[in-house]
Prior knowledge:
Number of strands: 13
Largest sheet: 8 strands, parallel, barrel
Radius of gyration: 21 Å
Order of helices and strands: EEEHHHHEHEHEHEHEHEHHEEEHHHHHEH
Helix content: 40-55%
Strand content: 5-15%
Distance between the termini: 28 Å
Structural class: alpha/beta
Number of helices: 17
Oligomer: single chain
Amino acid sequence: MAYPKVSGTKIVDQNGKEVILRGAGLGGWMNMENFISGYPGCEFQIRAALADVVGKEKSEFFFDKFLEYFFTDADAAFFKSLGLNCIRLPFNYRHFEDDMNPRVLKPEGFKHLDRVIDLCAKHGIYTILDLHTAPGGQNTDWHADAGTHIANFWNHKDFQDRTVWLWEELAKHYVNNTWIAGYNPLNEPTDPYQTRIIDVYDRLYEAIRKIDPHHALFYDGNTFASDFSKFGDVHKKWENVAYSIHDYSVFGFPASPEPYTSTETQLHRLRRSYEKKRQWMDERGLCVWNGEWGPVYARKEYEGERTDAINEERYRVLKDQLSIYNKDRLSWSIWLYKDIGFQGMVYVSRETPYMTLFKDFLAKKHRLAIDAWGADDSQVRDVYQPLIDLIKREVKPEHQNLYPAPVWKLSDRIGRLARNILVSEFLVREWAEHFAGKSEQELDEIAKSFHFENCLHRDGLNKILTDNATLVAQEN
């Protein structure tokens, strides 16, 4: 079997035949996220807190079992049964090196990544390796696992050096694996100067290519994979590279400005947002990969009797986006495969030990809107509105829209700092104390809540994905 490679606007096999990659991201696994797994704040915070509460040995046992159960052979078989052929594997650099012992490889980091790559290969599923969290934090959000809104990756060369080193180690390890469709070296970068990203990508390209000339690279655009406008002609230096957009639509989230009914105006907005993200590639005849996209879904415990109607609306957004993608024969990876019930194709049952243990805590999290992703801040908006009003009143209008505006509006920035960082920080210990006094057997059962056998299926979503897995327009 040969490596898939990028040729012009397409991904092709060794015979030049087009390969269209369609699948999902395994978010919340080797890069945990608060809304996916039900904790507050960042992964490094909860790992430290749990070790403090139950001890280092038990904490490491729990997280290892969590990684084991989160994706097994049953998950791979189910994924393949839907007609999908590629899984994006997000991972955190901390699996491979420690901040206090940088550039010293932790070989145990490969344990679960190798296991899942091999499971996917067994079922004929490609994988794309996604460095979702880089040293220092390459973006301003929680999933960069830095505990701050400052993306310090861009401010310290050593963070960049360590990332280049890590990709050299990954390339050495995976150079001969043809079931890996490629490397996604940096998830959703936010470089406020929009020039350092090009230098970093150039360094990564040179470093990886010296070791691995075979695998395709998938480069995210700046500002959460939305903006290539400052990339100029740098693509002329690179071969076998595709360019990744993340095509989320506001219509698929609680913050949607209006009900989504597929009006001409709404369809135009969907298409225009997507076209704007890929404009630089289209002008130059380059390959586009949609590395993340997809709505979130209502839950009966929060949205009550409106749940089904809301989700039908979200499915309409999903279908309309897919209609656009199919016309362009686009490769895509929806976000995401598994979670606790907000966005996943499969999700942990409310009856499992994990979900029953955290039932009240999760309700508190929702009420306080301490997760940024798809937040419903209606129950606390009155608390934060005076702060928004203060800044609007005291800060000059031209100084209110700080990068990463316009993706972050003023209210988003205040929400990130005041709710998602500050308030979350106070709840980290409370999350960890739910595990106090648990035996290893009990910790195992809690972790096993994420096993495929303990998950429910979002059948409406999965049917739509299956219907569109191979549906593309005929080539001209």
